[in-house]
């Protein structure tokens, strides 16, 4: 089904490529983060890639957004360049954001992204196509299936299981406004620390 | 189902992003190809992105491969850089290859790639996971469903329909050897010309 298919694709086509060490020269995610933290003189409370899985599938272009006033963009981690399926020199890199923690009065660096397949799925829902009607009706199940399957794939792969944390959340309030994702991320960071 | 899901993902997450003009500064695929042809002094018989859909899902890392002696890599078309789903500055660019046409004694430039979702799907088949058994049994149907759905999505989008040509083919011979994809691409080019 669509949801578990998206999870397989995200796992084998992205997470498995970018998170671990892929060559002798390469670094895994933790080393990339340490490298960044040293060279930029900043601190990451948790050295993992946080993956946002919002129930609505609304993936804002950037986390730097008027709705999330405590979040700023920071430069990305090191690039991995790989020729894949005849696409020459495909560029992969994880994103870094800094979040102002108002309670503790500190600036927190974190490696975080939306689950890209959901963003693409959402674009599909907003278009018209042979299967769009069905996908719209079942979108909540599809997101849940994506989350459950991805969780399982990560758990069963010792090479990646500690490099990644899934945040599956209800991103909209009753009144249709978006919740502040900064708080959601900070809560998860403080829980793990 | 998995196949049509992959088609939606490839269409909305890639083809729709990279082929048309996305901004005033941007070029669409045809303009990118003309730009390249002018600056490098070469000829593209057909200004389209050819997408290889091999029945086996085996997507070689590059088309420059001992199995395809007439094909060489060339530099890629212009890059498009976009922040997508909080992934900052994601890099997209189409690949160019030159093919030696032995019959006509000429070197032909072509914009061609494998359908990347199939490469990812294949990696999934080679792994173990909650759904892998099912995917292996139905892989041929899944590829066919991918092709049919993608064909339909392209046909229904006037902005992209002429920028793309799908090559769905049996990539292996009876004896298990790979067919020379150079011949398959050249045959399609000569047919369109
Ligand atoms: N965050 C993030 N950064 C990346 O660089 C990246 N690359 C892929 N993905 C996501 O992993 C999964 C597997 O990727 P695959 O390559 O099989 O399919 C991809 C691939 O076939 C094609 N595509 C996307 N970006 C490119 C690209 N730069 N070059 C060629 N093809 C691309 O369009 C499909 C859907 O892409 P996304 O919907 O953006 O999400 C993908 C997908 O969910 C990424 N996610």
UniProtKB/TrEMBL annotation, chains A, B:
One of its GO terms (cellular component) is autophagosome. Residues 1-192 form the STING ligand-binding domain. GO terms for molecular function: 2',3'-cyclic GMP-AMP binding; cyclic-di-GMP binding. One of its GO terms (biological process) is activation of innate immune response. Keywords: Membrane, Transmembrane, Transmembrane helix. This is STING ligand-binding domain-containing protein. It comes from Henosepilachna vigintioctopunctata.
């Amino acid at each position: 089904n669509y949801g578990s298919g998206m999870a397989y694709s995200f796992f084998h086509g992205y997470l498995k490529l970018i998170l671990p060490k892929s060559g002798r020269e390469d670094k895994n995610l933790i080393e990339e983060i340490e490298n960044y933290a040293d060279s930029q003189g900043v601190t990451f409370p948790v050295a993992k890639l946080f993956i946002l899985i919002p129930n609505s599938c609304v993936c804002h272009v950037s986390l730097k957004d008027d709705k999330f006033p405590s979040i700023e963009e920071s430069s990305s981690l090191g690039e991995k360049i790989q020729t894949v399926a005849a696409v020459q020199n495909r560029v992969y890199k994880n994103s870094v954001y800094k979040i102002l923690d108002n309670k503790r009065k500190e600036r927190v660096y974190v490696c975080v992204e939306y689950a890209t397949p959901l963003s693409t799925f959402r674009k599909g829902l907003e278009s018209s196509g042979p299967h769009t009607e069905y996908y719209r009706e079942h979108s909540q199940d599809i997101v849940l299936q994506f989350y459950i399957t991805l969780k399982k794939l990560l758990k069963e792969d010792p090479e990646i299981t500690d490099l990644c944390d899934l945040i599956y959340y209800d991103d909209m309030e009753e009144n249709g406004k978006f919740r502040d994702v900064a708080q959601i991320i900070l809560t998860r960071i403080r829980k793990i620390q």
